[in-house]
Amino acid sequence: MNGTDVLVVDDDISVCRILHQMLSGEQYKVQTSQSVADALGAIEKNSFDAYVMDYKLPDGSGFDVAERIRSTGSEAPIILISGYDRSAVALRAEKFRISDFLEKPFSREIICNAVKKAIGSPKGAPELSPGDSPDSPVAPSEPTRMRFWPRWAKRPPS
Question: According to the 3-state scheme, what is the secondary structure of the chain?
Fold first, then answer.
């Protein structure tokens, strides 16, 4: 995984520090941002292999960042983290092909496993063959949606 770039976006500096330490320990190259504006600036300057971002940010939401990421054509996995219930973000999460949703607090094992699953194979190696994803013209987006939505199906309807 050496050389895999991850952008962490959370307005809580201690969460950024903890995630930086956890993911750096797994050999990811981690950059942190504390706002939508900072994250958008980082995205303009660098390309990232994965994103871990908070839902609620002081100048918007993680979906504002996700929208920019997807508008550039990037299919990089996006993991949303939040203290809010996932049902509050379900429709927008599907729209932006969010790979996973983690409720705070979470353990080192949970975040590291989520990033490993989201990134999958090393840079440049496809996760699925095109025939494995008949509903999607871009194969890499399908596995991320499949990992995210089955968890929703387990929740009772509200």
Answer: CCCCEEEEECCCHHHHHHHHHHHHCCCCEEEEECCHHHHHHHHHHCCCCEEEEECEECCEEHHHHHHHHHHCCCCCCEEEEECCCHHHHHHHHHHCCCCEEEECCCCHHHHHHHHHHHHCCCCCCCCCCHHHCCCCCCCCHHHHHHHHHHHHHCCCCC
Q: What pLDDT is attached to residue 35?
A: 97
Predicted pLDDT of residue 65:
97
Q: Does domain 5-153 have CATH number 3.40.50.2300?
A: yes
